[in-house]
Every structure is written in structure tokens, then in C-alpha cells.
């Protein structure tokens, strides 16, 4: 954990001073994205020190052959990788023929990075003395346009501070890149065509195997003291790269500026043979706007995003910075414009975890997007899974399930399973339930039922079929049991009767049976279409009910708790606080078998069930389970603290809730796990948002009604957030003294605050 | 299964007719070994068809970097591979400049292979028409000397059948070889020096990383019609190979013979700088003996081996061939001359399973070597583990165990763990118990206690310490439980309270406590030395006893059986015979999770415990367990049928016992599992021997007394085997009518036959 490295600031991420050891971490933290592409904060000019180069295009992946020890039936053939894409940001700089490289400069001063989250741009500035004793001052601003999401812009300003000099600026495109996270050192890209047209250039390339065609493009211009320089660049071109080399004689302190527009057009969005033509149109539009115009639009776009999604915290700048960093990166990663896309655990900030979609999306991200965007965005996330239903059925079939049973993959890019540890791929099947739960959650929150008859019911049926087949009747127990699963707590593998999975599975079946009735009576046409398509017979649903009504749940009479799984009480139940600190984190200090035999919980498991189904249990039951399980929880998953923060708040333990909040919100900024250089933990960022809104704010939807039980951490003066509840925007401000609520729109809205009804009249703040 | 491919013959393995599809399988079946080196039955002349080239040197391995999906703490860095060694058998043949290559010949007739097990040689002969229409007749005899175990000899006879011709014979050495089973395409060998001296040649090379220095050598001579040809060969040499090229003008039907001696000298056995000098001495000795002399010695050596280890079966040639094939390969693999060596699952017949030592050695191979060799051989096998004790302690320490607890590796070459599936490496810990059991078994059979005070007790202590730490007290059960293990049935992973492991662990502790008492009273000096060395205190052994006396064993009151593990009865208990045949073998047809959830048993698990500890349970208890578990056993491990054969025989179910016997004895010959081309199943071959001696013969040692309960399969007229029982050789012949027993030596011996005492007087056959 490094708490001094990033300066506290309410709206910006700021690094001051050049530390080569931090370059890779900063490349992650200052990453840019616009939902369609993204990139790590790599330097434009060459850098010979330790760096992790990364540019990514949403939806463009490579099916890297999986690498496992011993093959097992049902393993996927490949592990989809988010690909390092051709580099368009590069600008080589030479002063008096010496390359500018911060790793070789004899001194670097005033080095500063700022990621301005409010306006959506990234600035880097420094003074440096080069090995040839030339001193330069550099300031670079870069952003990826939210509006024109195929383009980004760079303004690279340079002054020679101690002499007149010959400067060469060489902006380039390069498709000769590699992936760090490659299993077999395969070549992932093939370059087919390189074109230069004046100050524009284009590289046509395609991915191997998946054959995504991408045109990487740029346009460059040079200005001296603000005036366009009349220099014709020299073309530099080889088999994988193309550059415009500008040779400029500059006077001491003259301001040299290079404007570079660049980006990608992709055949996911345009006809393959039009990619260069479209790129030209995009560049035309960027040129018309000019850098300043694009930047102005960028600020406007981010203002709109913040207008709805910001959470303002008074009195705690680190907490403020943390939540905005989380909200900013969530919006950089996914904007909901394209239902073929989803939210990768590392977003556009790194390669790790390959593939884009985990159960994180349904379990953690959906609530954020439902509450801070228009309904269409959440719909897109649900539709993504609907579109993968056939693949999920195939996947289940590979594992021996029949009759349209669906098992969604643990990790995917295109609906196929990409993960290959048997204990996860084959057994961590609770993910399937999160997908049904998201359908329920969408309806609960938005009030929009239409997704279910249109698409959702088919998903529910596939999932229910899977669960019914996955349970088996135990003659011994005379109940249905579920053997050989891995729950959300991945520090247990291949256990029997994981309570969370059993409970969720039962709920999925019950919920599906209910929705079948609703759709049958209210949407008979859809009902008939779906029953026909899925060949669903009443004998089958009766069988579902038979299973769901007689499921075994491990329970301890002595402790009055549901057991995480069979045999949990056989473990040595030493609490985490009684463990020697030198033993933590256990995933780095202990062998895997020791972890498996221990009672230690990586992330909420039974408690995840209590989070999803809070209304099924009384407060005292929650308290008993929280008090039993949290002491054994090591929170070594980024997804763990948020759920515990919400539940601690629910139990009125605000100090504990606040501790969990800080851990989740500043996980990457403070680098708790010493791994931020690999990229950011994007999906858990949505958990941070939940910690405030559902945790401190106590927001729930019960029986179509919005509830709040506002509380505030000691350390804060106030916090404010907005919720889009069924197309009305509610602003909630909680201070130590009171909570106030205000809605937009035309209709009044009844909400409940601390279980008391409160009527909200549009544009009238109500204190409660 | 291919039952017609190998001709039935009591003493030889015979293949007739050339089938390119069978080349790789035959390369396995006709493999040669002499305990110190071995080789697949690759052709001497070049072959462009599908082939799996393999030459192996005992104890020479390569630590190939492991390849896993996701790393886990405690995983080994490398996976030791038995290396494909430099090739010394190669003889290129050209007739009128055309290479002889059976893959390109226009016709091949009279192709025949014979592996003469009685005499220890391998012969291949054929007639072939080459693409240039030259017809040749070839006969090759090859063997690896048992006496001079650094050398082998080849006599390559060739006639041109339809014309005079120019023949080139080019015997060579080649160190430019690769391993099929390489994780990272690393280069495994480095060639440092190539020397040619007249008709001798030497390649000095060493393995990468492990740096084993090997001198591969040869000497060649050519004869025409039996007379040494006065031809000086031309030297052919490149960076990795060296050859002697003989150009001979032969007349039609003239007999051309090439004698080639070749082999390895290794710095495991000689000073590194003496390897070529030693090779020269070895070649001198071979030359003096000449081919015929060496072959004569070979026949004598094998006669001696068979004298003691043969099992003769009358009336069933396939059963006869099967058991001899098994005994032959066991002796080719391990002769007990070198306690640094052990018995790899594939011996010298393939690369699969890398590493040389599994628990197979102690559980399956030891009884064979104890009974058919001098005691020193079994001692060597035990000493091997004693020499690895420090490494086993380190291995346990890596996993979090302390205070000298020892965990022997699942797979090893040098004492370090080489296997890297967590569910096996970390959890299949019952292997540790097999090592203690072998110590007991050695004493039980040989009557020699001296190993225990000298070496064994330290091993027993390390293992007992491991078990005591591996159990944990369950507050819930108020007993000690063992969580997270994999039993011998690898179709279950990470289960709790595997009965076999719990029982074996308890036995290990109890046995160690007893031996501590014995050594204390009878070998006080050793006792003091060991207690001192291991810092063993009485508080510790009291703690062992406390654990061992209160261990939980899963048991079903309803079925009156011990349960394989917790929760076994929750499975869907459909018997194997009621499974659709299309679903078998399940390891090829089912996904891994389906296998894990099923009740199907790969190899004896609870029943393995009943095999080891038969005398702890009554016959009726065995029967109950056999009847419960065998119907769920798919026998998809080569180690499964033998134990079941022994137990079926014990229960008087001879028909079933015979079926199991056939399955184990002809597993490779009939290629039950369609994988013989990868190599043979060496360790399970010892199980075949047990099936006859312990199964049909009913041999047991109880209270220092040898017992037999002879039975005979319907299909046989008689069978005869010998047992070295405490340095007296007992010949047992069982026919349908009677059993007869005869001993060598000077002393009379009391044995029991069908529980009745029988006195054996030397050299007097007794019928009983």
C-alpha cells in the first residue's frame, strides 16, 4: 500500500515527481478509455525503462490456445485475450539527433501527471536534461473522445529551454506489438496494408484466428508558437509501422506543438473494405473541430456523465477522490452503447484475466449502471447474456447436461467458456444464478417487465433446467443435494452443498416458475412462442418444483447458522484476527491445500446470499451470520469489502462499514494488493458505488417502492448522490444532521425513509 | 483392444506382417532394457513413417519447467522428465544410393518381430522391394547386455536378393534428438565433443540444467559371408552426429553383416573426465567376447533371472505369455543394483508420466522384487526413500508443515516433487503411508528387522509427524478429521475423511509408536541416535497417540460399510453394469465434473485398504465392502484389476478373479486402453504377478509364517511359481488336482496351506 504516491484531490488523480519504479503503476492508474477503446498511460515518446505497453479495442480479442497441465474433458480450447492493439499514440522526439527518453535523461524535474476526471483528459509535464545536455520542457494533453469514440487526440508541447536546436518530431503508428499475457508467444496481428496520405496515415491489420479487421489511423500537424508550421514531413515506413518525420529548427524557448489525432475503425462496426474511408471521415470531423473543439466536447460529455453519476463527499477528500476514481473508470470502460460489449475486470487498463465478462457484471456492476444511466444501458447488459444463450446451452451440453440446460461461462468474450481450471470452470456454477438474479433485479429496480417475455424468460428456463439437472436426489438424506461445486469463496473447491449455490439455485427455479405464470397470463403470445421454442412441458416444470421444494441446506443447530458447505464445522475455526500478521495475505503465504483446509473466506459466500436475498431473512439472522462468517473472511478478493460494507451499515456498524468502504474505494489508488501495475480492478469499482448508495444511503427497492435508511460515516460532513429511479432523478444528500431528497420530472413519488413514507414533489427538497 | 496383433506364444512376443499403423505400438511392446538403459524398438535404418523415437538412460533426467494454468503456492518449479537420450542404434542403409526406408518400400513381405523373453533379445526380419526395384532381405538381432549394462549389441544382416549392388552401411551416433513430451520446446542436450577413433566413435554431451555428462559410443565392423570385410569406413561427422560409412560392392545373395556395439557411460557412475576411457574399456570387453559371446552371456543372465522369477502356466498360452511379458519388462526396468534408481511407470518404453517414482513402487512393485530377488534388491528400494527423506521434509515444509514432518512427492526423480496438479500434488498424500507400509511389509516378508533401526525409523517418524499435523480436531465431531485429500481413487478430489487415507495414517502412527518401543529396547544405540537427530520428545509421541486413538472414520450403519469419504452416499448410486456402454470409459466420455460427482471409482480405494490390512478385518467384512464398491469401480487405472483379482480369489470367486487377471496381464499386449504406443504400464505389471501369487496362490505372511490357499482358474491346467522366502526358495505348483511345495536350502520350513501346517523338507516335494 502506498498512500503518498497519489496526491489527494477531489477531482483529479495527481502524481508529482518522476519515479521509474512507479511508471507501470501510473500507466494503470492514469489509463484512458471511452467505452470503445482504451489505453494505458504509456509515454508518447520512447521509453527504455520498465513499462507495460497497452492499447485495447473493445470486443477485439484473440483466442489464445489454453495452457494447462493435464487436459480434462470439457476444457475449452482457448482462452480469449483482450488484445494489445496497434499503437497510435507514439511520438518519437529527437533533439539535436538525441532521442528524448526519460529513462536516459540525466535529470527530470517538475514531472507531473494529472488525470482530470471531471473533464476527461490526461496531462503529463516535465523538464528534463538530455544526455547531450539539452534541456527540454514538455507538456502533453491526451484524451479519448467520448463523442467520436473512434478517435483520440494528443497535444504534445515541447520547448528547448537552454539553446536553439534541431528537433525532430516523429509521430507514428505501429502494428508490430506483442501481448504480455500470451500463452504460446503467438503473433496476434497480421499487417496487410500501410498507406500514407499527406499528414494522414493508415495501417490495415487483422487479428490472427478471429480475423478482426482494424484500420489504425492518424493525422498530424505541427505548430510553432501557435502557428501552423509549413513543414512537409518525411515519410518513415517499414513493414509494420508508418510515421511522419518533422524536422524543425527551433529557437530557445520557442513553443513547438504537435497535434495528433488517432484511433481505430473496426469491422465490428463498419464494412471491412470501408475502414480507411470511415477513418478519413472521422479525421475530417476531428480536423473541423480542431483539438480545442474536441476537448470542449469532451468536457461537455463528461459533465453530462457526472451530472448523473457523481457522488460528492464533503469533509473527506481521500474518500471523495476514491469514489470519483471508481465512477470515472466504470464510465471509461462501459457506456452501454453496444450490447455486444461488457465490462472486463481490468477494463482497458491491462491484459490480466483475459476475456471481458465475469459474473461480476451481473452481481456487482448492474446496480450502478441501472441507477446512473438510462434503462437501455442495463437492458444492453441483460441482452448480452440473451445473445449468448445458445452458447451457454452448448457449454452445458459439453459437460453432459441435456434438454436445453444452459451453463453460462465463467469468463467469456463471445459466449464461449475461456477459463480452464476445472474447479472454477466446471464447478463455480453459481455464476449461472447471478444471471437470473440480474433479470429479477432489473425488473425490481426499473419496473420494466418487458425484458422477461421478450428475452429473459428463455434465459431463466435454460438456467432452471441446468439447476434441476445439477441437483441429485440423495437416498441417504432423502433430499436433493448439489455435489462438487465451488462457491463465491474460491478458497474452497469442489465442496458439497454450498449453501449460497443451493439457495440461489432454488430461487432461480422458483422465480422461473413464477415468471412462467406471469408471462402465460399477461403475454400469452410470448409464452406460446417461448414454450414452443424451448419445448417446455408441464411434466418438466413439475419436476423442477419437486426438486426446488426439497433441497438440502446445511445448517448448524448449535450455531443457528447456515453452513457455507457440508463439513464447514470440521475446520479449525481460528478467526482472522488471531492469525499471525506474517501469514497474510494467505494467498501469498500459504500453500493451496492449506488455504483449502482453512476456514478462511476469500469473499462473501453465505453473506453474498444474504446480500442478494436480504428480504428473505430478518435482521437478527443477518447479524448472526455476519458475526459468524466475517471473522473468517480475509477479503482477498476485490469484490469482498463492498458487500461487507453494505451489511455492516445495515447492522448499524458504521465504523466497520467505513473501513470496508475505504478498502474498496482506494484499492487501486493505494495499491493495497501491490499489483496495480497489472491494471485496475474495474468491476469491483461498482461495489464501491454500492457501498455508499446501498450501504450508507441504505437504498433498497421493496414492493416497487424506493427505500432509504441514511447513515453517514463519522469522518464525513455530507455525501450526495443521484438515482435514476424509473426515469425520475432523485438527488439524495445525507449530512450528519439530516437527509434530504429531491426529484426531477413531473410526478410526485412516494418513497420510504427509515421505513416511514415520504412524498417527494418534483423540484422540492424534502428533509427526512 | 487388438487381440490378433500379437501372436500367442509362451516365451516370445511375435508380430507378423508389416502394418504402418502398428509401428509405434510395436516400438513400445518390443522395447529393450537392462536396468541401466533402455530403448523403444525403433528401426535401425531410417524410417519416414510415424514413429516415436526413444532411448533412455536410468537416472538421467531433465527438469522441464512446469506448465500450469494458474500458479498456486507450493507448486514445483519443474517436472522431471525421463529424457530421450542420444541415439546409438542408428544404421542408415543405402542400396545403389537409394535409402532403405520401410515407409517408402514398394512392398514389404515376411515382416516379423520377435522379442525372445527367455533369452533377452529382439529380432526383426523382412524382405522389401525398394523404390529402385532392388529387393533386400534383412534380419537384425539386438539386445542390451544385462552383464555389461553400459552396452548393447546389434547384428544387422542384409542380402540383396535380385542383383549385385553397391551397399552403403552407415552406423552412426546422434545427439541431435528431441523429447516428444517437452513443455517448452527447450533443447535438452548440449553436445560438447565428437571423437572418432578407427571404427570407434564417441559423442560427449551433457543435459541442460541437470548437467549429466554422457559419453555415447559405438564400435562397428562389417562382415561379408561371415568374413570380416577389409573396408575402411569414411568418417561422416557434423555438429551433433558421427558415423562410419562403409561402401561395399555385394553380389546377389551375399550375406552382409554389420556388428555394432553401442551404449553410454555416464558421470553418475564414473568420473566426468573418464567417460570416453571407460567407454573404450567397455568396448574392449565387448570386442573380446564378440557378438556371439555377448549373446551367450545374455542368455545365461536371463536364464538366471527366469530361474527365480518365472511363472509357468499350463493350458493357457495367452495367460502364460501375459505373465512372462510382465515379468520380463519388470526385470528390464529395474534389477535393484543401484539404490539411486527406481521403477518408472513407463520404464524405458516411453516418456509419459515423466519422473521415475510413484507410490506404485511401494504399493505394487515391492512384493514382486522381495519374492523374486535377493533381499538386497528390496532394501535398495527402501533405501531410495531413506535417501530422499530430507527432500520430503523440505517438501512438507513448503506446504506449511513443521518439525521434521515429511511428505514424500507424488512423482519424483531425485526426491523433489515433480507433479503439479494441486488436487494430486497437495492432496493425494496417501502415498506417504505406502512408504511406511513398505517398511512394514519388508520386515514382514523378509524377517529382516535391521532396516528399521538403521534407516526406516527416521522415515516412519517423518511420516507420522506429517499425519499427526495433517489431521485436525473437529469441535463438531469431537474427533480428528482429515480434510481436503485425494484418495487412490483419483475420480474424487479434495474430499474429507477419505477412509483409506485416514486408516492408513492411523496405522502409520500406531506402527511408528510400536517400532519406537522395539528399537528402544533392542537397538538402544540406534534409538538414541535417531531420537537425537529427530529431536523426538515423549510429549510429541503422546500427541501422536492422542490423535491416532480418536480418528473419525466415515461409516454407514445402514450398509455396514466404511464410506470412501464423507458424503459418498449422497451420490446417485447407479452401478457400472447399468451404465450405457457408450459412456465408457468415463474418463474419455464424461466431463471432469461429472466424473467427480459420480460414484465411479478409478481404482481400489477402500478396497486398497482392505488389501493392505486384510488381517484387520474378517472375510465377511471384506465381502461386504467388495460387494459394495466393486460394482462402482470402472478400473480405469492399470493398478485396479490386480487388487480386485486378489480379493475376488480370496472370496472364492475364481471366475471373476480370472477376468481381472487377464485384464491386468494383457493390458498392453491387447492394448485395452488404446494407448500402448505411448509406452507400457510397467508398475502395474507387478500387480499381475501379485494376482497369481497372492490371488490364485493365496500367499500371505502371517506371524512369520508363509501361508497359501491355492486355487486355480478353470482355464488352466497348472501354474508354477517360486518364492524367495527368507533366503529359501520355495517352488509352488498348483494344478487342478493338487498343490505341491518344495524348498531349497538346508533347513526345514513350516508353512500353512489352507490354514493347515505343512512341513517342507529341502528338495522334497510335498503335496497338500
TrEMBL record, chains A, B:
Q: Which family does it belong to?
A: Belongs to the glycosyl hydrolase 65 family.
Query: Source species, please?
Result: Flagellimonas maritima
- In this protein, the active site sits at 490
**Membrane-spanning regions, if any?**
none
Q: What is its EC number?
A: 2.4.1.8
MF (Gene Ontology): carbohydrate binding; hydrolase activity, hydrolyzing O-glycosyl compounds; maltose phosphorylase activity
- The encoding gene is mapA
Which InterPro entries does this entry report, sorted A to Z? 6-hairpin_glycosidase_sf, 6hp_glycosidase-like_sf, Gal_mutarotase_sf_dom, GH65_N, Glyco_hydro_65_C, Glyco_hydro_65_M, Glyco_hydro_65_N, Malt_Pase/Glycosyl_Hdrlase
GO terms under biological process = carbohydrate metabolic process
Q: What is this protein called?
A: Maltose phosphorylase
Amino acid at each position: 500500500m502506498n498512500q503518498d504516491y497519489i496526491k489527494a484531490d477531489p477531482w483529479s488523480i495527481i502524481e508529482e515527481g518522476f519515479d521509474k519504479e512507479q511508471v507501470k503503476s501510473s500507466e494503470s492508474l492514469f489509463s484512458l478509455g471511452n467505452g470503445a477503446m482504451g489505453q494505458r498511460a504509456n509515454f508518447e515518446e520512447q521509453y527504455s525503462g520498465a513499462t507495460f505497453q497497452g492499447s485495447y479495442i473493445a470486443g477485439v480479442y484473440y483466442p489464445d490456445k489454453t495452457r494447462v497441465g493435464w487436459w480434462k474433458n470439457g476444457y475449452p480450447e482457448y482462452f480469449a485475450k483482450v488484445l494489445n492493439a496497434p499503437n497510435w499514440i507514439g511520438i518519437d522526439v529527437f533533439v539535436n539527433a538525441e532521442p528524448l527518453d526519460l529513462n536516459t535523461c540525466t535529470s527530470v524535474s517538475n514531472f507531473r501527471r494529472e488525470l482530470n476526471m471531471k473533464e476527461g483528459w490526461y496531462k503529463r509535464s516535465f523538464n528534463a536534461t538530455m544526455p547531450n545536455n539539452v534541456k527540454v520542457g514538455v507538456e502533453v494533453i491526451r484524451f479519448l473522445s467520448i463523442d467520436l469514440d473512434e478517435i483520440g487526440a494528443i497535444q504534445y508541447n515541447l520547448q528547448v529551454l537552454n539553446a536553439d536546436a534541431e528537433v525532430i518530431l516523429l509521430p507514428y503508428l505501429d502494428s508490430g506489438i506483442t501481448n504480455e499475457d500470451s500463452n504460446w508467444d503467438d503473433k496476434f496481428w497480421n499487417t496487410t496494408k500501410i498507406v500514407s496520405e499527406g499528414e494522414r496515415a493508415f495501417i490495415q491489420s487483422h487479428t490472427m484466428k478471429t480475423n478482426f479487421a482494424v484500420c489504425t489511423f492518424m493525422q498530424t500537424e505541427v505548430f510553432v508558437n501557435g502557428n501552423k508550421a509549413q513543414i512537409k514531413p518525411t515519410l518513415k515506413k517499414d513493414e509494420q509501422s508508418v510515421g511522419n518525420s518533422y524536422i524543425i529548427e527551433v529557437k530557445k524557448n520557442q513553443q513547438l506543438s504537435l497535434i495528433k489525432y488517432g484511433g481505430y475503425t473496426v469491422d465490428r462496426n463498419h464494412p471491412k473494405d470501408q475502414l480507411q474511408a470511415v477513418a478519413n471521415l472521422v479525421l475530417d470531423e476531428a480536423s473541423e473541430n480542431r483539438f480545442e473543439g474536441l476537448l470542449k466536447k469532451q468536457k461537455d460529455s463528461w459533465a453530462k456523465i457526472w451530472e448523473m453519476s457523481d457522488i460528492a463527499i464533503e469533509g473527506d477528500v481521500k474518500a471523495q477522490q476514491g469514489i470519483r476514481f471508481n465512477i470515472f473508470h466504470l464510465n471509461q470502460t462501459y457506456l452501454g452503447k453496444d450490447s455486444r460489449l461488457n465490462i472486463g475486470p481490468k477494463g482497458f487498463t491491462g491484459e490480466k484475466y483475459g476475456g471481458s465478462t465475469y459474473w461480476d457484471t451481473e452481481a456487482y456492476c448492474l446496480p450502478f449502471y441501472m441507477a446512473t444511466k438510462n434503462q437501455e444501458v442495463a437492458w444492453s447488459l441483460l441482452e448480452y447474456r440473451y445473445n449468448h444463450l445458445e452458447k451457454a446451452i452448448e457449454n452445458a451440453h459439453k459437460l453432459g447436461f441435456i434438454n436445453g440446460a444452459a451453463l453460462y461461462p465463467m469468463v467469456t468474450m463471445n459466449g464461449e467458456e475461456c477459463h480452464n481450471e476445472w474447479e472454477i470452470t466446471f464447478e463455480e456454477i453459481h455464476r449461472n444464478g447471478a444471471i437470473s438474479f440480474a433479470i429479477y433485479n432489473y425488473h425490481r429496480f426499473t419496473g420494466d417487465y418487458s425484458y422477461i417475455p421478450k428475452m429473459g424468460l428463455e434465459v431463466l428456463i435454460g438456467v432452471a433446467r441446468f439447476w434441476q439437472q445439477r441437483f441429485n436426489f440423495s437416498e441417504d438424506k432423502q433430499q436433493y443435494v448439489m455435489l462438487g461445486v465451488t462457491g463465491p469463496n474460491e478458497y474452497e473447491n469442489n465442496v458439497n452443498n454450498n449453501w449460497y449455490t443451493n439457495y440461489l439455485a432454488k430461487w432461480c427455479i422458483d422465480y422461473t416458475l413464477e415468471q412462467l405464470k406471469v408471462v402465460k397470463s399477461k403475454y400469452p403470445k410470448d409464452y406460446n412462442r417461448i414454450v414452443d421454442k424451448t419445448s417446455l412441458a408441464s411434466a418438466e416444470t413439475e419436476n423442477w418444483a419437486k426438486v426446488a421444494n426439497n433441497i438440502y441446506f446445511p445448517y448448524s443447530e448449535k450455531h443457528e447458522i447456515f453452513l457455507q458447505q457440508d463439513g464447514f464445522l470440521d475446520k479449525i475455526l481460528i478467526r482472522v484476527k488471531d492469525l499471525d500478521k506474517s501469514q497474510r495475505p494467505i494467498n501469498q503465504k500459504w500453500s493451496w491445500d492449506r488455504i483449502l483446509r482453512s476456514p478462511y473466506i476469500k469473499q462473501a459466500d453465505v453473506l453474498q446470499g444474504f446480500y442478494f436475498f436480504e428480504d428473505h431473512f430478518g435482521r437478527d439472522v443477518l447479524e448472526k451470520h455476519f458475526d459468524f462468517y466475517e471473522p473468517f473472511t480475509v477479503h482477498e478478493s476485490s469484490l469482498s469489502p463492498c458487500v461487507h460494507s453494505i451489511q455492516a451499515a445495515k447492522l448499524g456498524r458504521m465504523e466497520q462499514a467505513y473501513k470496508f468502504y475505504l478498502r474498496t474505494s482506494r484499492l487501486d489508488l493505494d495499491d493495497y494488493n501491490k499489483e496495480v501495475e497489472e491494471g485496475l480492478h474495474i468491476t469491483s469499482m461498482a461495489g464501491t458505488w454500492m457501498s455508499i448508495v446501498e450501504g450508507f444511503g441504505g437504498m433498497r427497492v421493496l414492493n416497487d417502492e424506493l427505500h432509504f435508511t441514511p447513515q453517514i460515516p463519522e469522518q464525513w460532513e455530507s455525501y450526495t448522490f443521484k438515482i435514476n429511479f424509473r426515469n425520475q432523478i432523485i438527488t439524495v444528500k445525507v449530512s450528519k444532521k439530516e437527509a434530504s431528497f429531491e426529484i426531477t420530472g413531473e410526478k410526485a413519488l412516494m418513497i420510504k425513509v427509515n421505513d416511514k413514507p415520504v412524498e417527494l414533489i418534483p423540484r422540492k427538497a424534502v428533509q427526512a
